[in-house]
Amino acid sequence: MSNVNAVTFTIVVVLFLVVTLTGFAAARWRRAEDMLHLNEWGLGGRGFGTFVAWFLLGGDLYTAYTFIAVPAAMFGAGAVTGYFAVAYTIIVFPIALIFLPRLWSIARVHHYVTPADFIRGRYGSRGLALAIAFTGILALMPYIALQLVGIQAVLTVMGVGTTSGNTFVEDLPLFIAFLVLAIFTYVSGLRAPALIAFIKDALVYVMIIVAVLYLPTKVGGWGHIFSTAEAHMKTINPATHKPTGVFVPTTGNSQLAFSTLALGSALALMVYPHAVTAVLSTKRRDIIKRNMALLPLYSIMLGFIALLGYVALTDKVTAANVKKANNPQLAVPYLFQHLFPSWFTGIAFSAIVIGALVPAAIMAIAAANLFTRNIFKEFFKPDASPRLETRVSQWVSLIVKVGALVFAVSLPKTFSINLQLLGGIWILQTFPAIVFGLFTRWFHRYALLAGWLAGMLYGTIAAYNVSTPTASHWGGSVNTLWGHTYYIGLTAVILNLAVSAVLTLVLRVTRVPAGTDETSQPQYSADPVDTPPPAPAAAVLGSDVSGGDLP
Amino acid sequence: MTQPSDKPRHSGGSRSPIAAHPVLSAVIAILIFASIFFAVWVPLYASATPKIGDFPFFYAYLLIYMPVLGIVMWIVITLQARLRPRAGTKRTAGADGGEVTR
Fold first, then answer.
1. Chain B residues inside the 8 Å CB shell of A259
2. Predicted TM-score (pTM) of this structure
3. C-alpha Rg value of chain A to the nearest Å
4. Is B101 within a domain?
5. How many CB pairs under 8 A join A and B?
6. Taking the C-alpha atoms of A171, A176, A182 and A184 in order, what is their torsion angle to the nearest 10 degrees?
7. Is residue B98 part of a domain?
8. What's the domain range around B52?
9. Into how many domains does chain B fold?
């Protein structure tokens, strides 16, 4: 801890303490009569309005991925692997507008807490719901891990904990940050990230506005930044004998990679369980819609943050630092440290750390809800009371975080944007069942299950086989098929759909039972005004005696 | 998939909002589809020139897209609201599980 800047360090610690206190205090915010209910702990009482939802969704969707991984990818390889994220955050809103209001309505009418609850009700299939729940938990692990990598990047640049050779001591600050996150999530549930999101966004906005206005002038203006980046991307990488990166995707394959990455990520984002959690926590149907128009404001920020990768490339000291550390994830933290005064570096670093904690908390809650509702209650304890459900969720949220920690420590460090893309490959396989299921019951439940399996197997194997000069496996998220380069997630989901469609025809001809559908068409556009009674989804489980066990 | 998010609100009797407002529904569908298409179709904007300020066209295009998207989404939502003039005042469809049609 010899080269730690005292001012920066103090500011980060103080802001971290403020956030911690807020996290615990959140338990009292909009306090419900009985906090030991999944509607409360896991969905914040389902009562958030447009304003809170904007912060919560923003805090949910713009993560360490945005602040660390995207600029790192821009720094390392330019437009295709980095700037696609801007196109992705454009596409996501019109797509979400098509199906999210329907998901909100049906979940409100039937008191669904998780996307797998919906699958259970729509297809009457425990197996399919289990597959969806399992995929959700699996896909969230690397996404939470990505948040950890983000925190780690900041801590490394701050000089905290890097001096020891011991892994445990080295990562101790990360463990502490994570432990605190785990505890306040346990106590306050979704209210904690919702409240902290306000602090996060204030810090992030300040950081970005200052960074975008101030930093380019320090390194010679945007014109110089772009020409430096263009020249850099054209230089031949000695390891691969190919250009370092792509400045503007002009070849067919780079355009295809760019488009499929953007489209695939956009399709994936809103079926992520944590996105669904935030959506279901809102009070009215229109709030979701309004946010689809308001959230693009956030994405403008993302565009500029991505470009900070090029700013880092232009700043010689930062570029040299990153090269020495051999870790592009450090590009933005090093840039801030070099060009900002130390007090503002402290604020910017806090913004990144808190910006990683908020989504990590929501993701852990979403994964915990999936486990409790669709695995624990469904298969092990069908008569679980709401109280027990909440207790289980609280504990699982802790376990999920440990799992993410394993991901973060064990996968290659150059992997961070791929962590998100890998999660995307998996979660995309739930897209046909969830999103098509919101519009049609045409697909057969077993066909969807088979399609899911095909997509999961193909996607995982294909991603495992991607190698780079530095990593033999898990090296990326695009591969080449018949001479064209695609995002694996998108090809896998197309395979998934094809299998589902063909098998549906077969199963229909052979008259295999399609399962009971507990939903009806009008319910998909319903907008119940009243907060649903705090009864668990009685309709989901026939054996459940609804709410009778509440005091 | 590409239809606007609001399917018929009433299962029987009155005409569905989409059938009642074909032009409005088409406009909504086109706006949603267009806002996806113009971002996905990279060849449209994958060019370093013309520069907008200091920004190569490719980079400027997507940055400018964002506020435009916000406005388009707002228009879509406003139009969708006109498809259902009585939204919120009528009984909430199916909330009590009363009409289970399949």
1. 40-42
2. 0.81
3. 23
4. no
5. 164
6. -160
7. no
8. 20-83
9. 1
